[in-house]
Amino acid sequence: MLHNDKLKLLASEKQINLAWERFVSAGSSPHSSIRTVVADSWQRCLHDGVDPTLNQTSQYINESDFQLLLTNNEQLIKAAKPAMRKVGKLLAESGSMLILADKQGVCLHVEGDEKTLEAGREIKLHPSAIWSESAAGTNAIGTVLAVGSQVQINTTEHFCEGIKLWTCTAVVIREPISREVIGVLDLSGLNHEFSYHARALVADTAARIENQLLSLKLEQHNTLFNAALANYSDTTKNGLLLLDKEGGVIKESRQFGANLAQHAIPFSLTDLSSVDAEGGLLKQLRNLFPEKWMQPIFAGDELLGTLLVVPPAKKVIHRADLSASNNGSSFTHIIGNAPALTKVINKAQRLSRLDIPVLIQGETGVGKELFARAIHASSGFNQGPLVTLNCGGLSRELIASELFGYAEGAFTGAVRGGKVGKIEAANGGTLFLDEIGEIPLDIQANFLRVLQEGEICRLGETKQRKLHFRVLAATNRDLSELVKQGLFRSDLFYRIATVKLYIPPLNERKSDIPQLVSAFIERLSTQSKAQVTSISPELYTLLAEYHWPGNVRELKNVIDCAYLMNSGDRLTVADLLEEFPFLATFNKKKAKQQIDSVNRAHCDPSNAETSLLTNLSLEQVEQMTVAAALKKNKGNITKAALQLGIAKSTLYQKIQKFKLG
User: Fold this and answer.
1) How would you classify the pairing of strands 167-174 and 96-102?
2) Which of 213, 247, 243 has the alpha carbon at shortest distance from 228?
């Protein structure tokens, strides 16, 4: 069929015109003479009563309705304009124009060659004009909306006589999550040649628009989710349903369905296919539920969405500050008081009690797994296991068997009795996938199905196993960029990136270095016979000045090495010279200036050389640091605490401890 259509495409204009004349005058079937997609379109035009003598579209909308339409399609236009302008520059002097239309065929925006834009205005191919088949006959915009796949209409293939000098090719634009058609991108021009290059250009530009729509959608959902998270707590008793401002479902809590059943409310998310789009779900919810259960979510004056809070029967809904209801005990293993880190810990504590996936982002070595363990320990899944898998560096076959497990005899080398995969092992608990961006695309599709269906089938067997677990994922890569490059599935990204948690690098929280070093040394002291009681000022200065590309992991490695190479009770720069010579030479001049400054402030200048060699305990170094901060800030507690990266209450405790009042 495809081969025959291509042959018919090459039919002469004279042959197509003859078929058209016979069709419009006598209704003779054109299928034997022209392409099937064109013949079917002509049949629809005849059925709809389209005038074949038209020289322009017959329909357009007035200015006020058009402005409302622009508002309703704001996201589509915002996503499309950058890509269209880029292509528009390429179309200069090309005799072509690019048209964006909505799902009804109304032109929203145009770009392209100025002469062609002028010619387009003569046939009303401009914003506010309607180019559906019923309004303008066979044309790429209207016909692609009718068939749903890419269409090219050449000159005489148009149904209406007055637009037979044009050639146009179009492709639908789909909503990136639901895949519903939301618009059309069309390339038109006074061009008699069939161009496969034009088809590729339109398809590529439409794909770019859909990727941009996905980015905008995820940004909106993340903003909405964070706004809801900041104001409402999930007590595990309330059922929650989060919706965007169009009524699209963002997230449903586990308790939502159970609480609906307690109230005997006849509503199921499985029936959403029967709900009208564009806010129809919100209207249905308002008819079913008390108004007090519908909590609007705002960012300033902007409505972001709605949170439906369904309490258990005969219970009261409590609105609360999330941070006040969690003692965060499982997060005490995360060391540091820097504002950047404290902000992330507070967010992670709130997230830990919600049954949602979390994407943990950050550079290598910042402690993403440490956060994953803390979230699991504070979650409702903490009675189940925390199962981890680092997806980096594993072959496709190994990742598949590790994730899904396998049956006995599934492949050569399979262990007797088969193997339980990581997903199945995490049932009732949490699955943590580190470096999730390394999972191959085909395995991403299988993993997405597990998340959607809540069941898994081991490799080599057909038995489905029901599961319920929480997913935490981590990456040091930009997954949204991988989505644009086609290396990561957009639907999986949307599923796991319900909310993101960014862990700051050590370079952004250097005030935590003394606390981290003290913790590392304390741990090492309990594990060995050696007892380090002090650290040289030179080493502290060096550690504070270094930029730490490997973050906390690199710092820990350096301290571990210094501790093991040390032969006394004090760690010095000399302990690192052999293993880490780059540290010994790093910014040596600046480090020496800072050490000299400390000695001038706290020691006799005439005995500076001796003072550098004086043993200082960790407590003495801490006391000197606090005293220097207070002196620099002239006793201002707030400013001193900010400089030290600690809470004012903590600073008060240290002032009392060291009698600095």
Assistant:
1) unpaired
2) 243
CB atoms within 10 A of CB 651: 21
360: three-class secondary structure by DSSP: strand
Compute how many other C-beta atoms are within 10 angstroms of the C-beta atom of residue 218. 21
Helix, strand, coil proportions of the chain in percent (round to 5)? Answer: 50, 15, 35
- The pLDDT confidence band at residue 417, using thresholds 50, 70 and 90, is low
| pLDDT level of residue 583 (50, 70, 90 thresholds) | low
pTM above 0.90, yes or no: no
How many C-beta atoms surround the C-beta of residue 212 within 10 A?
Answer: 20
Distances (CA, A) of 39 to 4, 10, 46, 49, 153: 14, 15, 11, 16, 11
In the chain, what are the domains?
2-216 (3.30.450.40), 232-271+278-320 (no CATH), 325-504 (3.40.50.300), 507-616 (1.10.8.60)
- Which two structure tokens, joined as six digits, stand for 55? 């020289």
- Dihedral sign for Cα atoms in the order 420, 422, 424, 425: positive
* φ, ψ (nearest 5 deg) of residue 653: -60, -40
| 3-state DSSP of 601-642 | HHCCHHHHHHHHCCCCEHHHHHHHHHHHHHHHCCCCHHHHHH
Query: Structure tokens of 401?
Result: 């068997």
Instruction: Give CA–CA dist 66/431, Å, rounded.
Output: 49
Reported as type and span, the H/E element at residue 158 is none
Rounded mean pLDDT of 149-158?
Answer: 92
Per the CB < 8 A criterion, the answer to whether 55 and 123 are in contact is yes
